[in-house]
């Protein structure tokens, strides 16, 4: 598997040595609290912790560069749309209005709106690194065992694991089709205008879909021939038992989660209001 594809990367790090169940629990718990909370202090600390763990995981920038760019573009568009459709949302939430300047028509730039959108940006900052850590350090087979270990049906667990396995394959197929298009004289390099590159990239979608459907059909038939899903239970070759590192990781996440929940009561709600 190429290192520039978003998928499991086998490395030697403390995070890789953790049980898949531990990483699943930590990812779900922290992600849920960060998505629910609007406490700037908690989101910032969670983001810093996530970046530190990302560094410990030995995940290189090249491995997450393109997904990060895509997410950043989506985040900027999301923030702009929030301001366009609800420019006074921060004022409604914090019950305070401090005008910075008047932009145009009904649009006023306020500190409360900026603070509200800062919190939304911090949500990306705190949850996206967690997703990268989980995807790039957890083997799909171990992930399936982890889901099954916490009570999810092994059929659903295996389906999720196959989906994660398929992400790098889709990227590889996209690159292969793109290179074939370029060999035919269709310029999709950075030298071509952006609109032209987007138009040519859109033409790759249909071959990619048909190729994916063929592969799905082949995998489905193979699993049926092996009588997958006929039994009520199954064993897992890739299951990893808990270790001291797992207990430490779960304890740390538990403490961080308790802090996040406690802030709900301190703030008398999800929002931290400095105004």
State the helicity in percent bands.
55-70%
Major sheet: size, sense and barrel closure? 2 strands, antiparallel
Q: Termini, distance in Å?
A: 50 Å
**Total strand count, please?**
2
How do the helices and strands follow one another from N- to C-terminus?
A: HHHHEEHHHHHH
Poorly predicted runs: none
Taken together, the total number of domains comes to: 2
Cα radius of gyration in angstroms: 22 Å
Q: What is the overall number of helices?
A: 10
The coarse silhouette is: globular
Strand order of the largest sheet: 1-2
Summed over residues and divided by their number, the pLDDT gives a mean of: 79
Membrane topology: Multi-pass membrane protein
Pfam families: CbiQ (PF02361)
Organism: Eremococcus coleocola ACS-139-V-Col8
GO cellular component, one term: plasma membrane
Give an overview of the whole structure.
The chain is mainly alpha-helical and 275 residues long. It has two domains: 177 residues, no CATH class; 86 residues, no CATH class. Strands 1-2 form a two-stranded antiparallel ribbon. Helix 3 runs antiparallel to helix 5. The longest helix has 30 residues.
Secondary-structure map:
Layout: H1 20-36, H2 40-56, H3 61-85, H4 89-94, E1 99-104, E2 107-110, H5 111-137, H6 140-149, H7 154-183, H8 194-202, H9 205-225, H10 244-266
Antiparallel strand pairs: 1-2
Helix pairs in contact: 1-5, 1-6, 1-10, 2-5, 3-5, 6-7, 7-9
Keywords: Membrane, Transmembrane, Transmembrane helix
Organism: Eremococcus coleocola ACS-139-V-Col8
Subcellular location: Membrane
